[in-house]
Write a structure and sequence with these properties.
Blueprint lengths: L15 E5 L3 H6 L9 E5 L4 E3 L4 E3 L6 E2 L2 E7 L15 E8 L2 E2 H10 L4 H4 L5 E3 L3 E2 L10 E6 L2 E7 L7 H11 L7 E3 L8 E2 L4 E6 L3 E9 L2
Parallel strand pairs: 1-13, 3-9, 4-16
Antiparallel strand pairs: 1-2, 5-8, 5-14, 6-7, 6-13, 7-10, 11-12, 11-15, 15-16
């Protein structure tokens, strides 16, 4: 471990690795096949946004969606990490939103192009405060939820994930070395929907954390 403060990993962590379609019901709602191996994409650290700052709608989208996710914060680097010791590399967790320009993503998918414009823009990764590992003894069995303007839109358990956290850590680290301060977004349950300027998003992990973000458009 270095002297850097893992509780503020977003200030210095080098990458955000996201897992798509890791809940079968969400894959189905977007008319995607249920994957036989993880679907990965990246966000840059400039995607982070914290409570008190708004989620900014990119100028090029008219269909911005919320996706609530459990984020896994890496505390110990490794390559080809075995599943059996994968959790030793976890420092803690955060609640995350994977904000997605769905119209842009659909267009990219239809053309066989990467999803970067749909997923990696500034403020596309709102996060909660850091949650120490011991606060979530079983990350494979927690409830995530998200409300838009106080209306429940997403509610699901991490027990519904297709690929477990140890599996994802092993799979990702075989391809991309995981470093201290990296964040893995583990996928979203069903119920994604569009948000508009001035909407208020509230999200939580039952009994652990809540967070609130306003949606705005860059002036």
């Amino acid at each position: 471990m270095s002297a850097r403060n893992i509780g503020r990993f977003w200030e210095w962590g080098r990458k955000i690795i996201c897992v798509g379609r890791n809940y079968a019901d969400h894959a189905i709602e977007l008319k995607n096949a249920i994957p036989s191996e993880p679907v990965l994409f990246l966000k840059p650290p400039s995607a982070y946004v914290r409570e008190g700052s708004p989620i900014l709608v990119p100028f090029y989208t008219s269909n911005l969606h919320h996706e609530v996710e459990l984020g896994v914060v890496i505390g110990k680097a490794g390559t080809a990490i075995p599943q059996s010791s994968a959790m030793d590399h976890v420092a803690g967790y955060v609640l995350c939103l994977d904000m997605t320009a769905r119209d842009v993503q659909d267009e990219c998918k239809s053309k066989g192009l990467p999803w970067t414009l749909a997923k990696a823009f500034n403020t596309s990764c709102p996060i909660s405060d850091f949650i120490p590992k011991e606060k979530i003894p079983d990350p494979g069995s927690i409830n995530l939820w998200l409300k838009v303007n106080d209306i429940m839109k997403q509610s699901g358990s991490t027990s519904q994930m297709i690929f477990s956290i140890p599996y994802l850590i092993n799979y990702i680290s075989e391809i991309i070395t995981l470093e201290e301060g990296d964040l893995i977004l583990t996928g979203t349950p069903k119920g994604v929907s569009s948000v508009q300027e001035q909407d208020e998003l509230q999200a939580g992990i039952d009994g652990i954390v809540t967070m609130t973000f306003k949606v705005d458009r860059k002036s």
